[in-house]
Amino acid sequence: MKSVAIITARGGSKRIPGKNIREFCGKPILAYSIEAALKSGMFDHVMVSTDDGEIAETARRYGGEVPFLRSGETAGDYATTNDVLLEVLEEYEKRGEHFELGCCIYPTAPFVTAGKLAAAVKRLLDSDADTLIPVVRFSYPPQRAMLVRNERLVFGQPEYMDSRSQDLEPHYHDVGQFYIFRTEAFRKNRKLMLGNILPLVVPETEVQDIDTLTDWEIAEIKYRRLAER
User: Fold this and answer.
1) Nearest-10 Cα torsion for 52, 54, 58, 64
2) Sign of CA pseudo-dihedral 93, 98, 102, 105
């Protein structure tokens, strides 16, 4: 079974300039995703999909492949991860390479490890699922969320106003780190979030969205604490 890891790293980040190659705890943050994929030993190719020459150079320096650059269609602000993955798979097909298994890894995912990737691939292959997605439990039950309406607070679901947190069904959200998928099912669904999806529950200490500089600082604190352990 041939497999490919696809790290999606376009240029032009606006909120954190140079985000995908910005230094994170001593090296470009992109390096963590590349090194984890390579060390896992689960992929025939570890490639970086980018439209940016500096990102491509950094990727190659840390062992990633950049066999081709993104098209203009998938380098824009409104292109989705699904669009990028489909383009990469189609481009490989044109070059005579077909993959049964794919792994999308985000470039700002320093908490992804080789062991986590290897375990996730094996778990998916041992199942009948189309996709495996790491998720984390919401720290506060969404059923008791409040909304601001006409400058006043109201419960979005008032039927849960007096419910105890421990009595409510746990809800989870995508951690935004990686996705393992069978390429045949993905080509059919054309979306990672459709089909038969297997969850991988991740602790909150290993999860951090990085959208702002404050997020970045929190992620570095978490990463250093984990490294100390």
Assistant:
1) 30
2) negative
Residue found by looking up tokens 């409104």 in the block: 78
pLDDT one-digit tens code per residue, 114-170: 999 999 999 999 999 999 999 999 999 999 999 999 999 999 999 999 999 999 999
State which H helix or E strand residue 103 sits in.
strand 101-105
Closest by CA position to 90, among listed 108, 73, 109: 73
The count of other CB atoms within 10 Å of the CB of residue 33 is 29
Please state whether the predicted TM-score (pTM) of the whole model is above 0.85. yes
pLDDT in tens, 91-121: 999 999 999 999 999 999 999 999 999 999 9
* Tally of CA atoms within 13 A in the half-sphere of 223 that contains its CB: 21
Tally Cβ neighbours within 10 Å of residue 64.
26
